[in-house]
Amino acid sequence: MKKSFFLYLLILAVLMNIFTYMYYSKKATSEETRFKVSNAKLRDSLNTVTSKLNDANYFSLENNENAQNYFDNANAEKFIAYEKLIPFVKEKLMDANENPAGNPYIGMDKIGEQKFIINKVKILNHRWIIADYSDGDYWGEALIKYFINDDETVSFENFQTLLYQK
């Protein structure tokens, strides 16, 4: 009786170990498979986002070698590198927001009580800037020309303005 009890107990322990081993090995395999699938999806998503970002930044001075070469000429010592030019031009354009009548390079007069100011700026190439502006109620976009002068100052000229309907 005592021997059969220990034999049944041993068989039960062996079966529990086999079932436990099978459960955890299959669980590890399924988790590895799930990890591979999710990793592939994430890689595809990352490639898609990278592609969209590259498309969105196609028109930018940072990615336009022809526009960068415009500043790399015989008189290059008069110009700053485009990496320094971008924040310099943005800062000068945003400084015009301090004007009490609004930013003059937008090409819009006040409509209400608030003045129009530039919110976002993107330098497209060696000559063009696109800017987003608003007065809190109305929103618009402006194409602005910019020029780097011989004395290393920047001048702006409004080219076209678009005001969205309220």
UniProtKB/TrEMBL annotation:
Transmembrane intervals: 6-24
Lineage, top ranks: Bacteria, Pseudomonadati, Bacteroidota, Flavobacteriia, Flavobacteriales
Name listed for the protein in its UniProt record: Hydrolase
Keywords of this entry: Membrane, Transmembrane, Transmembrane helix
Organism: Flavobacterium myungsuense
